[in-house]
Amino acid sequence: MRKERLLHIDIIRIVSCYFVIFNHSSSKGYTLFSTYPTGSFRFVAYLSVSVFSKMSVPEFFSLSGSGLLGQQSVAFPKELQYRITKILSSLIPFSFVYEILRATREHRYFSVKPYVIHMWGAGPEFHLWFLYGYLYYLLSLPFLRHIAQQLSGTESMYLAGASILFHGLWPMLEYLFGPSSLTLFGTEESIWFINNICICPCIGYVIEHSVYSDGIHLQHLLFVTGLALLSFALVDGLTVYQFNQEKHGRGHQELFYRRFSMLNAWCLHLWIKYLLRNWSPPKIWETMIHSVAQATFGIYLFHIMILRIPWMEVVYTALRKTRINIMIVGNMYCAIVMTIGYMLTALLSHIPLLKKAVGF
Which has the higher per-residue pLDDT, 54 or 1? Predict the structure, then answer.
């Protein structure tokens, strides 16, 4: 029996998938702000969109926690085997395809050794690292379920606050006032692991099952929104300062972008759940939303491949000639990429030997 799909969860999943694509759109959207004078209106406005796009990864972990952490830990080895097999059934074939494409770009023949080396690392394409992170998350399910199901409202707020402090505020203060050696930046991987794989799923579970069980209170939602807006001001301000000071290269600039990504993810989750609490869309809309949401995993797997198709540059050039605002053009371009990814996923979902590779 298939689990009933929740409308607000599927809408959040679609929004998050879209911003994954935007996050990889390079100068067409994600880094567009850097082409404008530092501190100008467009610099800050477009930077804010890029900062918001970083919420996609913590949002996906939160959504997973809202579902998986509510299940009982029965027959865990069997469940783990099923879920890891499902991930590997996507990771292995798509890594193989991307390795072939990589060899083609590098004008060399496909070789098993580079393929194995890349698989041992984070995959032959950078976006596949998420699947490796998700495998770590699956291994953590037993104790995460126990933690999430025992959390009280106060304890969950403490957990969220600790995440915001140590992943968001503290590294920024250290950058501004600390020594030249940024110790928390140096341990970015461990902070990322704790925040995304441990904390975000637990908070996702709490949002869906524990806190606001009698309905989301608007005053609490506005408070979280205020914190999110404040985080945008901090990140934008620090990025402008960093551009002016030129203390670090592009990599460290991007570390600032995701300082409060989990807060933006939780804020989005709460708002969509609040706005859709009494909304019943037309049946055709609901069917379409569920269909696209079910294909988001396949879209994620395909989108880098689509972005690198040469004629996509022709599409972008044609959009630019319309004289529409350049950021809107970038978003239209990402929407086209997502549409193509949806169609490819829908096609493969009807082929018995290939549908498991795209999550069906």
Answer: 54
pLDDT at 274: 86
Nearest C-alpha neighbor of 169 from the set 210, 209, 227 = 227
Contacts by residues 220-226 (CB-CB < 8 Å, ≥ 24 positions apart): 221/270, 221/271, 221/274, 224/263, 224/266, 224/267, 224/270, 225/267, 225/271
Res 77: pLDDT: 74
- 1-28 burial: b if 16+ Cβ within 10 Å, else e: eeeeebbbbbbbbbbbbbbbbbbbbeeb
- In the chain the first and final C-alpha atoms are separated, in Å, by 14
E-only strand ranges, the chain: none
Centroid of chain to Cα 91:
17
Average pLDDT value for the chain: 84
| Least confident range of 89-103, 162-176, 209-223, 268-282 | 209-223
Residue 277 in 3-state DSSP?
coil
Tokens 């404040």 correspond to 230
Residue 242: pLDDT band with limits 50, 70, 90: confident
At how many degrees (to 10) do helices 41-53 and 7-23 cross? 120
> How many Cβ atoms are within 10 Å of 305's Cβ, its own excluded?
18
∠ Cα 326 233 160 (to 5°): 115
Task: Give CA torsion, residues 26, 31, 34, 39, to 10 deg.
Answer: 170
Q: How far apart are CA 269 and CA 263, in angstroms?
A: 10
Tokens of 186: 């140096």
pLDDT in the model for residue 19: 96
d(CA 336, CA 320): 14
- Single out the residue of 188, 326, 180 nearest to residue 251, CA to CA: 188
Tokens 């041992």 found at: 120
